[in-house]
Design a protein that fits this description.
The chain is an alpha/beta fold and 419 residues long. The chain has two domains: 258 residues, 2-Layer Sandwich (Aconitase, domain 3), CATH 3.30.499; 148 residues, Aconitase, domain 3. It has 14 helices and 18 strands.
Length: 419
């Protein structure tokens, strides 16, 4: 019987000749990532002292302060300082601060490679699946065990196969593909399962676009979102000097628990309505919804391709009067590249406010909260009640193009209306 990508990776990590969905294995961890919000300060700093008071391999640990940067209060500043000091105390040299959301930083710094096991104290760690890694989020208690031993137990997940075929129409983005898939499978339809994305549409996507899809696999409850390693993957990694890694793809006779198929040509711009990521409809169906804030950014919708497409749409236009548009590139590197290309200038001239690379807006910690009665259209990954500020505010999720178009019109807008 054939094997899926996740079965092959977990077999390698556990030293087994082969594993099957449903088995529980002890797997060696290749990278353990912690952020400032759910990192050392939560349980780990105190209890690691009872487990030898050292990290099994500091070179395999990455710590990224991204949620509370730039700090907006003394409390946040103290948390970042604690995280910084803890990393130094335990010999973690891979410490990043003010660099951007952790998942993008992990990918850009060569800490996610095909066939590896990547665990992080953030649920969107699954974004690493775009690079062929078994990447998933864990809690602080589980991370404590990983830090002490370098291993953890994992149940081998069943795999859902999602096939996208055809060419994406103008005005439609990878984010729309992700929302469409989530809308069909549901917020819990893939709980503790792997979701494998395949098809010629996926094969034709850039790495920026692929990351937007795997990032949101957890919004279906998935343990991981995976894409086969191909030439796009290899080119991305080669630029980082990474050329040695295993290449996995599911066998032709691999067993999938469910299969979904989509034609890209039929896809329209999508919007997830409050307060669930699976409450998805065509953007045109909610076109009368007034918007007070438009957010372009986060580890889901702030990469260079996202900023470029939004800038191309907004060039020569102005955002609607009384509306604010916030732009937060997904990393310092993306910020600089977007600036050098002139994209940030175009967005600024259209009326947008350019922010530092941060998780602050997405998770409602700082830099752009919404008030009661306000609606926000966001390229981020979640629209839970109170996620970006007031519980009386509403969050709609859309692609970067939909966010940009809505900012111009002052209401949720199918970007094809003004392209």
């Amino acid at each position: 019987m054939g094997k899926t990508i996740s079965e092959k990776i977990l077999a390698k990590a556990s030293g087994c000749e082969g594993v099957t969905a449903g088995e529980i294995v002890w797997a060696k961890v290749d990278r353990a990532m912690m952020d400032d919000i759910l990192g050392p300060r939560v349980e780990i700093s105190e209890k690691i002292k009872y487990l030898g008071d050292k990290i099994w391999d500091p070179d395999k640990v990455v710590i990224i302060s991204d949620h509370y940067t730039p700090p907006a209060s003394i409390k946040q500043a103290e948390i970042v300082k604690f995280t910084r000091d803890w990393a130094k105390e335990y010999g973690v040299e891979k410490y990043f601060e003010f660099a951007g959301p952790c998942h993008q930083v992990m990918a850009e710094t060569g800490n996610v490679i095909p066939g590896s096991i990547v665990l992080g104290t953030d649920s969107h760690t699954c974004m690493g699946g775009a690079l062929g890694a078994f990447a998933t989020g864990v809690g602080s208690t589980e991370m404590l065990g990983v830090l002490a031993t370098g291993q953890t137990w994992l149940k081998v997940p069943q795999t859902i196969k999602v096939t996208w075929s055809g060419k994406i129409p103008a005005g439609v983005m990878a984010k729309d593909m992700s929302l469409k898939t989530i809308g069909n499978i549901g917020h819990a339809g893939a709980t503790y399962k792997a979701v494998e994305y395949v098809g010629d549409t996926i094969h034709g996507l850039s790495m920026d676009e692929r990351m937007a899809i795997t990032n949101m696999a957890v919004e279906m409850g998935a343990k991981v979102g995976l894409m086969p390693t191909d030439e796009v993957t290899k080119e991305y990694l080669e630029k980082q000097g990474i050329i040695d890694y295993p290449v996995y793809k599911s066998d032709a006779d691999a067993v999938f628990c469910e299969e979904y198929s989509y034609q890209a040509e039929d896809l329209k711009p999508q919007v997830a309505c409050p307060h669930g990521v699976d409450q998805v409809t065509d953007a045109e169906n909610v076109r009368d919804t007034v918007i007070h804030q438009a957010y372009l950014g986060s580890c889901t919708g702030g990469r260079l391709n996202d900023i470029r497409q939004a800038a191309e749409l907004l060039k020569g236009k102005r955002i609607a009067k009384g509306l604010r548009m916030l732009v937060s590139p997904a990393s310092n590197g993306i910020w600089r590249t977007a600036d050098e290309a002139g994209y940030l200038k175009i967005l600024s001239e259209a009326g947008a406010v350019i922010l530092a690379p941060t998780c602050g807006v997405c998770v409602g910690l700082h830099s752009g909260l919404i008030a009661s009665g306000e609606n926000c259209i966001s390229s981020s990954n979640r629209n839970f009640i109170g996620r970006m500020g007031s519980k009386e505010g509403k969050i709609y999720l859309g692609s970067p193009l939909t966010v940009a178009a809505s900012a111009v019109m002052g209401r949720i807008t199918d970007p094809r209306e003004i392209m």
